[in-house]
Design brief:
Chain lengths: 281, 307
């Protein structure tokens, strides 16, 4: 009786495992396609097909894509943008999340909902006025034009996650600092922030990826080549070399390697942050 | 590094406040930077766009002509492409509600047991979600290439030559083909949400149900599904919200074509505003998206504001 149940369970597990294995092979196919297309000559690819192994590995594709596609400009821009946007956005989100989590004041509920509603605002509904605004500020077409909307659209999620995290920090710790004469500012800076490093780090990772990937705002606000970010630059590259498949795939691989590396090494923090607050813990 | 050491050595108590801020103002001072930023660069442009949507305007010239609700009337009564785009959004959203959600739930159920390599599987199924959608679109456009792409090559190899198709250049197949890419790239979201939801369900409920003689299906029906109620709200809301916001994949894979067959509201708004210089009409399209999404998001926002 018992062994029957056990045998059935083992059979069930084997079936599930094989199903997952088959599905994961399908899920990996696009990645394999890019790699197998990027590391060979165009003639080899077209004559022998994607699924064949390359005759000779053409590492030169990557160098060629990097230089003809001007990826050094796009990488520099995306990295600069991340350096400006991520710390600034998360810091002012933390500032806002602190009173929402730990202080009592009028309208706190309404203010929180005011920010949360931003989770549902489509970027499209701000694009045209943002373009006008950036022109008036004289920063249209520069990387600086992206910082204001990127920070604004990041705030709802970041405030939501940080408020949830801050609430888990015992208020006694803040109370102790206040009794020692610390101002609210000092309590925030010296007690709350150091204790929230895990949440802040998670948000940083998520935000780095989101900033690296963002396309629509960058497409609208930036047309000058010197200010393009990686997604806009990659699309431009595709427009110019659309039939040079091997070169194009090398360019795509170049632009996704950073996010894949971040994801693989830091996914533990990343995934936990995305579902934060979605489930009653 | 030296800064950090310095800061840590200085005791907190010694720092004296030179001036006092009235206690009641403190929360608002903390909130001020985020509120001002959010108001200036999200709320204000949004309202400005609402204002513009009542005008006939090219987005550049100083002259704007007030036209009242005409732009909105045109969307629903005159512009065939806008109605097609809305219909495509509805189809896309219905698809997004069912397919990735169901796959995500099944994957989560399969991966929630202590199966071998479940962390690796989780990584594989989630990994497309971290890629820039522009790259995803270009990768799949290559896979859908009529002559050399993986999809047609595979179909021919397994004897389904007649199924081979132009995919993205085919009027009926372009949208479904783009949607398949969406499933590939987005299935990770419902999966991780459901995994988190499953892990929050207490094992005791399952034990109790088993003792009461419930079979696997009954346990799923009466323990798992009610336990996931909150997760369903999140996952389904996000599916609708993102279904109406869709832009990147359509823009990079089909550019709204062939013809205008794959236009969605997000891309049509972009074309109208920034390619055809109909800023007023484009803003009205943007507000149709915003209105739909904001209304549908109400239960989601309420759920998020609790707890």
């Amino acid at each position: 009786m018992m062994s029957d149940v056990r045998r059935q369970r083992r059979l069930e597990q084997t079936v599930i495992f094989l199903g997952l294995l088959a599905l994961s092979l399908i899920w990996l196919t696009p990645f394999a396609t890019v790699v197998l297309s990027a590391i060979r000559g165009q003639g080899d690819l077209l004559a022998r097909g994607v699924f064949s192994l390359p005759k000779k590995i053409a590492w030169g594709n990557f160098a060629e894509a990097w230089s003809t596609g001007d990826f050094s400009i796009y990488f520099r821009n995306s990295l600069l943008l991340i350096a400006m946007k991520v710390p600034l956005g998360i810091f002012i989100a933390a500032l806002a999340a602190y009173p929402l989590a730990k202080l009592r004041f009028r309208f706190s509920g309404a203010i929180f909902i005011f920010f949360l509603a931003g989770l549902a605002v489509p970027v499209q509904v701000t694009l045209q006025p943002l373009l006008v605004m950036m022109k008036q500020l004289g920063i249209a077409n520069s990387l600086f034009a992206l910082v204001p909307p990127y920070v604004a659209f990041g705030l709802p999620f970041q405030i939501f996650v940080l408020r949830g995290f801050f609430r888990l920090i015992p208020s006694e710790l803040l109370e102790a600092a206040r009794l020692d004469g610390a101002s609210e500012w000092t309590a925030f800076l010296r007690v709350m922030l150091p204790l929230s490093v895990p949440a802040l780090a998670t948000l940083c990772i998520i935000d780095v990826l989101a900033t690296w990937n963002e396309f629509l705002i960058a497409l609208v606000l930036i047309s000058a080549k010197e200010s393009r970010t990686v997604p806009v630059g990659l699309l431009q590259f595709q427009g110019e070399y659309s039939s040079q498949y091997t070169l194009l795939m090398a360019g795509i691989l170049i632009s996704i390697v950073p996010v894949i590396a971040i994801f693989i090494f830091l996914q533990r923090y990343f995934v936990a942050g995305l579902t934060a607050g979605a489930v009653k813990g | 590094m030296s800064e950090i050491t310095l800061g840590a050595r200085r005791p907190v108590i010694v720092r004296r406040r030179r001036w006092r801020i009235p206690g009641a103002a403190i929360p608002y001072l903390f909130l001020a930077p985020a509120t001002l930023w959010y108001a200036a660069f999200l709320v204000y442009p949004m309202l400005q766009s609402l204002y513009v949507s009542f005008f006939d305007w090219d987005g550049l010239s100083p002259s704007m002509t007030f036209v009242g609700l005409e732009n909105y009337i045109n969307i629903f009564a005159v512009d065939d492409v806008a109605r097609l785009a809305l219909w495509n959004n509805i189809l896309w959203t219905l698809g997004a509600l069912v397919l990735p959600t169901l796959f995500g739930l099944l994957l989560a159920l399969a991966l929630n047991r202590r199966a071998p390599a479940s962390t690796l599987f989780r990584t594989i199924f989630y990994s497309p979600a971290v890629l820039p959608l522009v790259a995803v679109g270009l990768i799949w456009a290559w896979m859908y290439n009529p002559h050399f792409g993986v999809v047609n090559v595979t179909l021919k190899a397994v004897g389904l030559r007649s199924w081979a198709n132009g995919w993205l250049s085919d009027y009926t197949m372009a949208l479904p083909a783009t949607f398949v890419t969406f499933i590939w790239s987005h299935v990770g979201f419902p999966m991780i949400f459901y995994l988190a939801g499953l892990q929050a369900i207490s094992k005791e409920y399952y034990e109790a149900a088993t003792i009461d003689g419930a079979n696997a299906f009954q346990r799923f029906r009466h323990v798992t599904m009610p336990g996931l109620a909150e997760t369903h709200v999140i996952v389904l809301s996000l599916a609708v919200i993102n279904g109406f916001k869709v832009f990147d994949l359509v823009y990079t894979m089909t550019y709204g074509g062939p013809g205008r067959s794959t236009q969605v509201l997000g891309t049509w708004m972009y074309f109208q505003t920034f390619q055809y210089y109909h800023a007023g009409y484009g803003s009205a399209l943007a507000w149709v998206i915003a209105a739909i999404v904001l209304v549908i998001a109400i239960p989601y926002i309420r759920r998020m504001s609790r707890g």
